Amino acid sequence: MYAIVEIAGQQFKVSKDLKVYVNRLTNEEGSKVSFDKVYLVDDNGSISIGAPAIEGASVEAKVLQHLKGDKVIIFKKKRRKGYKKRNGHRQYLTQIVIEGITAGGTAKKAAPKKAAVEATTEEAVAPKVKKAPKAKKEDTQE
């Protein structure tokens, strides 16, 4: 079972017991968090799609720790001008572990792929009309 969920403005594909690094959350370490913007839930082949989110569905998680990501170096240079600028950035992150996914009530059930393919092939099957061959130019002598 997995779900597509929005956490801190970004979408993640999550499943149970998965550790995820997300943008810094305001919750304290060790606290539990619930995310309600669940866009898709796959429960062993039965897929529920929200429009835009599934009502009643949620993802439960626990905050493990707050940390900083790896340093990213930003280097700007303009050749032959003597301009060099070096800057760095470390993103503030939160590590969470997904404890459970609850699939909620009303959502569109996606049709299996085979049924969709069969429906399109039945509509697309039509007799093909063959064109008559073009007439050849006759040789003329002057």
TrEMBL record:
Keywords: Ribonucleoprotein, Ribosomal protein, RNA-binding, rRNA-binding
Keyword Cytoplasm attached: no
Keyword Lipoprotein found: no
Low complexity biased stretches: 118-127
GO (cellular component) term, any one: cytoplasm
Pfam annotation, one family: Ribosomal_L21p
MF GO annotations: rRNA binding; structural constituent of ribosome
One GO process term, biological-process aspect: translation
Region listing for Disordered, in residue ranges: 118-142
Subunit structure: Part of the 50S ribosomal subunit. Contacts protein L20.
PANTHER family in the record: 50S RIBOSOMAL PROTEIN L21 (PTHR21349), LARGE RIBOSOMAL SUBUNIT PROTEIN BL21M (PTHR21349:SF0)
Family: Belongs to the bacterial ribosomal protein bL21 family.
Role: This protein binds to 23S rRNA in the presence of protein L20.
Name of protein: Large ribosomal subunit protein bL21
